[in-house]
Amino acid sequence: xxxxxxxxxxxxxxxxxxxxxxxxxxxxxxxxxxxxxxxxxxxxxxxxxxxxxxxxxxxxxxxxxxxxxxxxxxxxxxxxxxxxxxxxxxxxxxxxxxxxxxxxxxxxxxxxxxxxxxxxxxxxxxxxxxxxxxxxxxxxxxxxxxxxxxxxxxxxxxxxxxxxxxxxxxxxxxxxxxxxxxxxxxxxxxxxxxxxxxxxxxxxxxxxxxxxxxxxxxxxxxxxxxxxxxxxxxxxxxxxxxxxxxxxxxxxxxxxxxxxx
Length: 261
Ligand code: IPE
Ligand code: IPE
Ligand code: MG
Fold this sequence. Notes:
Distance between the termini: 44 Å
Number of helices: 8
CATH architecture: 3-Layer(aba) Sandwich
Shape: globular
Order of helices and strands: EHHEHEHEHHEEHH
Number of strands: 6
Strand content: 5-15%
Structural class: alpha/beta
CATH superfamily: Decaprenyl diphosphate synthase-like
CATH topology: Undecaprenyl pyrophosphate synthetase
Helix content: 40-55%
Number of domains: 1
Bound molecules: 3-methylbut-3-enyl trihydrogen diphosphate, magnesium ion
Mean pLDDT: 96
């Protein structure tokens, strides 16, 4: 069904991508892993351009995980240099296209030149209001949850927060993802069917799409067909189909009125 915005029945508001397979892509061509990462940076352009063109408001890319620090030092250093290059090369076009860059994860863990380049990119694109491009850098989903719990515990000890005030909203405000809505569509390239510690809290009801292609092979059409597939899903959020379609009412859960027996 192609009848809505840009010909799609439904556009996901927040798409997150685990960009996996750069190393294998390179190896299969007799190249160094880092050349796969460089080619991967070009695929990022396709993803960003296409996402903003079709009206996706939030695109979040897993660029470097906490666990990736354990890779060979030379690869980590090359990745950090590539990030600087990406930030410098892309900033003008990102700003021109109304794309605002945001970061999740531990930006402070990055080497100073990389951190500066990323901070500069964030400042330079701050006025963008078409799409928010979030880069997950030194990011770990469990780490982000634990940091939020710790910061709430500190506030509770200081008497600034009462334990009974801690709900989903307040918890979320203490995560580095606080400015992002829940993930609607999570895509992973590279053929693995795991989430590798990405957006664990935020993907609670995301549609998951695992693609066999390697990240450097990602094309605009890849994203377009993912969105089309997304449009065909019925997202029930725990309810039944008739409720989602508005045919019968949604019940409010009231613990005082628990169904007995
Ligand atoms: C993903 O590609 C990019 C990063 C983790 C930075 P990989 O480097 O994991 O590529 P494969 O999975 O080894 O092919
Ligand atoms: C996930 O890919 C991290 C990024 C894409 C940045 P990995 O290649 O690090 O994940 P695993 O090790 O296969 O789970
Ligand atoms: Mg990998």
